[in-house]
Amino acid sequence: MSDLKKMYKTIMSDDFPDEMTIKFGEQTLIYRKRAWKIPDAKTGELIEKGLRYGENPEQQAAIFELVNGNLALGDCKFIGPGNGLVSAISEADMIQAGKHPGKTNLTDLDNALNILKYLAGRPAAVILKHNNPCGAAYGETVQEAYDRANMADIIAAFGGCLVVNRAMDRETAEMVSGNYLEVVGAPDLEEGVVDILAKRKNLRIVRIAGISQLEKYRDLRFVDFKSLMDGGIIVQQSPVNRIRTKDDFLPAKPYIKIRNTLSTGCRLRGNMVICSLAGTLNRALPPTPSFM
């Protein structure tokens, strides 16, 4: 067990270059590898490093920020530089770092923002664990939103990542400090909040100022890469969700298929099928979906 704990405390070096270039024909995107100077918890020595490790402690990993290039393919114009959220986090934004982040810490933050961009109208909270949503909720206050999101699956939320779309207040911080989380993200933190949250020394407290502008990311496409086990790559446009309000949903329509049975007659009344069966009383049957 001690060896396993040591693995998760070890900072891996990585052999990824400081700059990465991706060409799409004559168009070029340039990315810069990110690193942060974070003091060692025991010695206080500043250690400059990017990601602590990847999905698992034995995997090298790096995070890159788009810094140059504007890609347009056909009628699709992709997101350009200067729009960084998670990839643009600085040392100043890491209010309490605890230790250098791992890959999952940052992808949890990113996935939470991807949900919150559709919940900008009211105080909202999202909790993720290993990129899986544990709960997402609105509230009249940030505290109420967090409480609702946490209660959606309080077991799964243990050790997860919480992101809220309004400034974290003291009341919410007190509630959060009563649970174990790895990461807390917010657009800002009110006075006294850091002191409350910092009681958990390894909690990563991250300020993401761009949360206040999340709505604009609803319509911005990015290049979505999927690497295959044989070394190949699938590349696609990221989706743009057409559902923005409840009015955008299409109504569900029941499709009735009456099969050839011993029925002496069936008729539709409202949303019920009324059948007269030989030798039985009339029965009211719910509509049966037809799967073609």
Descriptive labels:
single chain, 292 residues, alpha+beta, Cytidine Deaminase, domain 2, 2 domains, six-stranded mixed β-sheet, 18 strands, 16% helix, disordered C terminus
Descriptive account of the structure:
The protein has 292 residues and is an alpha+beta fold. The chain folds into 2 domains: 2-237, AICAR transformylase, duplication domain (Cytidine Deaminase, domain 2); 251-292, no CATH class. The protein is 16% helix and 30% strand. It has 5 helices and 18 strands. The strands form 6 sheets. A 6-stranded mixed β-sheet has the order 8-13-12-11-9-10, sandwiched between helices. A 3-stranded antiparallel β-sheet has the order 1-2-5, with no helix packed on it. It is globular. The chain starts with a helix and ends in a 7-residue tail after the last strand. Mean pLDDT is 88; it is low at 279-285 and 288-292.
